[in-house]
Amino acid sequence: MDVTILSRLQFAAATYFHFLFVPLTLGLSILLAIMETIYVRTGNEEYKAMTKFWGKPFLINFAVGVVTGITLEFQFGTNWSGYSRYVGDIFGSLLAIEATVSFFLESTFIAVWALGWKKLSPKAHCVAIWLVAGASSVSAIWILIANSWMQHPVGYVMQNGRPVLSSFLEIVTQPYAILTILHTLAASYVVGGFFVMGISAYHILKKQYTNIFLKSFRIGLIFALVSSLFVVVEGHMHGSDLADKQPAKLAALESLWVTQKNAPVYLITLPDPKNNGNIIEIGAVPGAMSLLAYHTTDAVVTGLNDIPKEDRPPVLATFISFKIMVTLGMLFALLTVIGWFLRKRIESYPIYLRIMFYAVPLPYIACAFGWTVTEVGRQPWIVYGLMRTSQAASPVAMSQVAVSLAAFIVVYTLIGFIAFMLMAQAVRKGPEA
User: Fold this and answer.
1) Does residue 380 have a cis bond before it (omega within 30 degrees)?
2) Contact by Cβ (8 Å): 66, 98
3) Confidence class of residue 281 from pLDDT cuts 50, 70 and 90?
4) Calpha distance 411→413 (Å, rounded)
5) Is residue 264 part of a domain?
6) Is 398 helix (H, G, I), strand (E, B) or coil?
7) Count of domains for the chain
8) 93 pLDDT tier (thresholds 50, 70, 90)
9) What's the whole-model pTM score?
10) Average pLDDT for residues 256-264, to the nearest whole number?
11) Three-state secondary structure readout of 146-199
12) What's the burial of 116, exposed, middle or buried (CB within 10 Å: 0-12/13-18/19+)?
């Protein structure tokens, strides 16, 4: 254990906790905007009550997401000063745009929306929530562009041993960033859709406010169906991009050790109980990995044995996280497709409603494992091919990082407990009369 490992654990703990709230903000904000738009267009008071109901957990979620996100940016100075000095000219500009444009915009208009029900016209109030939804997505886009630059640095020249910005346009338009943005936003929309469906299913089963929650269930279902199918398709495109830009991560995703043509994908993969760290692979689909990565079964896929050991990511963690993420992604598509066929009489299928209620945490879990694949699979690089994580940590004492890590865990656990209790209390009450 050293300062770098402790700093990584601290950043991971803060990031995982923060990312419990970000996807719901992104997904639920758009659903709120859709619900309020229907209210404005139809004048149906049920949609107004629906919007106000879902607005309560949204506001709690948003507040905690803001608080926990700010501490992440401070860690670039406290824990990762080596990284900040090395790439601050590029990375800092991306974070600055996110904060000064998108974050301030969404923070301003969420207050307008929350407090303006009686002060604004219905149309103006509806515009406010659309601005919140748009600004939230734009905020996420800038963060993802910054992260994508760490994954695949472009648009720079080396001067005095440091990367210096040469093309801002190349950074914000590179395919890696676009694919990451599409994948993350769609996954967040799945979180929002399943949250709405799950809570709606709870009230439908309780036979409470049935008309309102049948409507909100169907809105969430359509939103989640489109998003979950898109995630599956776009995930394949993202995998193809990895073959060119991060071959070590691609090999780790399927635990491919031997470079081979017609590389397979295994349908069932399990840790070997007799040999720690090894994998039991069952049900090979010949050529599937070559096809997914290079669009032809004849393609050669580089195995981990042909990648220097010091450049390999932690294989087992990346591999297991990827398998869980993919399995859950396919499950979301299946559940929403089934829901589409049951949607006209969804209240007549209590087993499906119970499944959807208990499925609410699953998209959160998929997002967490998705970030594990992204970040752990990039190791040992903090900026891929330019700077190793071991070179990026601040020269601080281990005791300082250990104390702050413990403090983060304690404080965030308390905040999380309070936040989820408040959200649970809000959703159990049901909409206002």
Assistant:
1) yes
2) no
3) low
4) 5
5) no
6) helix
7) 1
8) confident
9) 0.88
10) 77
11) HHHHHHCCCCEEEECCEEEECCHHHHHHCHHHHHHHHHHHHHHHHHHHHHHHHH
12) middle
